[in-house]
Every structure is written in structure tokens, then in C-alpha cells.
């Protein structure tokens, strides 16, 4: 498969700038430079994600015999670098399952078959290092404040060489962008607690956590669910700006308003584990008008 002119077989042979297999020395002997994962930097190139014949099965563990339920059936597709893509479909159509499979974050007992490629190359577990994943359900320690949560996550996720001042600056900047500065010292709280973060603030905090490492590829599972129209628009506007700056963002979304829908560049519609439509948002409207 050839995605955006980056054939699979140039994986180990292209130069760091990706233009040629060999460097010409001052004489005429070509000098081969090998490229490895450690040199490969999709952060700079941008990320085009492609998948081919992808099926996902869940182990049903019925009594002693193992039986598998197919959730996603042989789907093929691609997302260009720098695009904001909406993954839509009815509840239970397989959006979260497909997204987790693409992000190499499937739960135990789930089997993924097929190819997943980044810029034309198979990635494997390296996907976890170059992508952020915002889960549908928020996972937080309720007793921490927003600042404590971000500080701990920053220590875990960021490079050790980043000093305290830079780390604090980064956290402040992200919290400011997401309108969370005024609740820095608020406890996150558990469901049912009073005087803690609202549902919308928790969603924004989950998004903020994923922005810490500034990944070139972001998976967001229902980032706007439970948000009011204003907050939903704000978060999608932010994603739109990030994609314009080169990030690739795949985002599941339910019932977006027309303004929010228009901010996406591409839409993938899932029905019963299969892709019913994939294309630009403008074409989607025409397609369903017919
Ligand atoms: N580990 C699993 N074991 C068994 N069935 C599963 C498993 N994971 C998902 N399913 C089933 O696969 C189907 C798709 O689930 P998925 O969570 O991907 O749907 P979704 O499109 O994200 O729905 P929603 O919009 O409600 O979040 C559902 O019928 C679900 O019950
Ligand atoms: Mg889901």
C-alpha cells in the first residue's frame, strides 16, 4: 500500500530528510544512510494514518470454550496528516473499538487483525509513543486537585530533562488554553461529590492531559459528550486549530451541531462495524441528501 507517496519498502533506506536513499559524496561514491525507528520523526513529518483489512474480535469467554464476536469487519481507510476527522455512527456501531484498535490501546481479550500504518510504515507498539488517547470514560484520582493531577501526569509523561520551571509553564499554558486556570486548585472529585470539577471541566482536563506531550496524532473518544454547546464548540475549535498546525486528530462524536460538523475536514461513518461512508464533510452532506 502506498500512502502519500511513502512506499512501505523505503522504511530502512531513506535519508533523514526522506528525499533520497543515498547521499552523494564529494567524489562519486554514494554514501548509504540507514534510517531506524530512533531517527524516524513523524513529529516533524506529520502523521498519515492508514489501515487495511482491519477486523476486531472480542473474546466472549463462554464457559470453557473460547468464542469470538466480530465487532469490526474488514475495514480499510486512511486519514491524511493535518486533518480533523469525525468518527460517527450509532451507539454500539464500534467507534470506540475501532479507535482503540487503531491506537494500539485495545483492552485485553480483544484481537485485532490487519495492517495499521503510519506514513506507510507498520508501527506496532511505537504508536503509543507518538499518539495521545482521550478515553470515553474519564479516569482520574478524585482526591487530587487539577494542578496536582497535571503535575503528576507531566512528571510521568514528559522528558526528564525538562526542568520544573518549564514544566510549570507548560501546564499553566495548557490549562489557560482550555479555560481551566480558575479551577487549578479545585479537587477533581468522584462522581456524586459536591463542589468539585463539573463534567465539562473533567472532559477538558482529560484533553489537557493528552496535550502535555504534544503528540502529532490524537485519538479523542467523545470529547464533547456531556458538554454544553459553547464548551463543545470551544474544544472542537481548538482541535481544528491544532489540525491546521499539522496534528492529525481522529475524534468520535455524537450529534454535532452544524457549526461543529463544518469544522471537521473528513467524516467516517460506521454502521454495524463496517464503514458506510468515508470522505469530506461537504461530500457527506451531498451523499446523504441523495
Ligand atoms: N470487550 C468486549 N467484549 C464483548 N463485546 C464488546 C467488547 N467491546 C465492545 N463490545 C461490543 O461491541 C459493540 C461496539 O462497541 P463500542 O464500544 O465500540 O461502540 P460505540 O460505537 O463506541 O458505542 P457508543 O457510542 O455507545 O460509545 C457493542 O455492541 C459492544 O457491546
Ligand atoms: Mg464509544
Automatic annotation (TrEMBL):
UniProt superkingdom: Eukaryota
Compartment(s) where it occurs, according to its Swiss-Prot or TrEMBL record: Membrane
Keyword GTP-binding applies: no
Main location: membrane
Keyword Membrane: yes
Location of the ABC transporter domain: 49-288
GO cellular component: cytoplasmic vesicle membrane; plasma membrane
Annotated GO MF terms: ATP binding; ATP hydrolysis activity; ATPase-coupled transmembrane transporter activity
Membrane topology: Multi-pass membrane protein
Keywords assigned by UniProt, alphabetized: ATP-binding, Membrane, Nucleotide-binding, Transmembrane, Transmembrane helix, Transport
Residue ranges, annotated region (Disordered): 1-27
PANTHER family: ABC TRANSPORTER G FAMILY MEMBER 28, PROTEIN SCARLET
Family: Belongs to the ABC transporter superfamily. ABCG family. Eye pigment precursor importer (TC 3.A.1.204) subfamily.
Protein known as: ABC transporter
Amino acid at each position: 500500500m502506498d500512502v502519500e507517496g511513502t512506499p512501505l519498502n523505503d522504511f530502512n533506506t531513506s535519508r533523514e530528510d526522506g528525499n533520497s536513499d543515498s547521499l552523494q559524496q564529494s567524489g562519486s561514491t554514494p554514501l548509504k544512510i540507514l534510517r531506524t525507528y530512533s531517527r524516524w520523526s513523524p513529529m516533524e513529518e506529520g502523521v498519515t494514518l492508514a489501515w487495511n483489512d482491519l477486523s476486531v474480535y472480542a473474546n466472549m469467554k463462554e464457559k470453557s470454550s473460547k468464542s469470538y464476536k466480530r465487532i469490526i469487519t474488514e475495514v480499510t481507510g486512511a486519514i491524511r496528516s493535518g486533518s480533523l476527522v469525525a468518527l460517527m455512527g450509532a451507539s454500539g456501531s464500534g467507534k470506540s473499538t475501532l479507535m482503540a484498535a487503531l491506537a494500539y490501546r485495545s483492552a485485553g481479550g480483544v484481537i485485532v487483525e490487519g495492517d495499521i500504518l503510519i506514513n506507510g510504515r507498520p508501527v506496532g507498539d511505537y504508536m503509543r509513543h507518538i499518539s495521545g488517547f482521550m478515553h470515553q470514560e474519564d479516569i482520574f484520582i478524585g482526591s487530587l486537585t487539577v494542578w496536582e493531577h497535571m503535575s503528576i501526569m507531566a512528571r510521568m509523561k514528559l522528558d526528564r530533562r525538562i526542568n520544573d520551571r518549564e514544566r510549570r509553564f507548560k501546564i499553566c499554558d495548557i490549562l489557560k488554553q482550555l479555560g481551566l486556570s480558575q479551577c487549578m486548585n479545585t479537587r477533581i472529585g468522584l462522581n456524586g461529590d459536591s463542589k468539585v470539577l463539573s463534567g465539562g471541566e473533567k472532559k477538558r482536563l482529560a484533553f489537557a492531559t493528552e496535550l502535555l506531550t504534544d503528540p502529532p496524532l490524537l485519538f479523542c473518544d467523545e470529547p464533547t459528550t456531556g458538554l454544553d454547546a459553547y464548551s463543545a464548540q470551544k474544544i472542537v475549535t481548538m482541535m481544528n486549530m491544532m489540525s491546521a498546525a499539522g496534528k492529525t486528530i481522529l475524534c468520535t462524536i455524537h450529534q454535532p451541531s452544524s457549526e461543529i460538523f463544518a469544522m471537521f475536514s473528513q467524516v467516517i461513518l460506521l454502521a454495524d462495524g463496517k464503514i458506510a461512508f468515508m470522505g469530506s464533510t461537504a461530500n457527506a452532506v451531498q451523499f446523504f441528501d441523495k
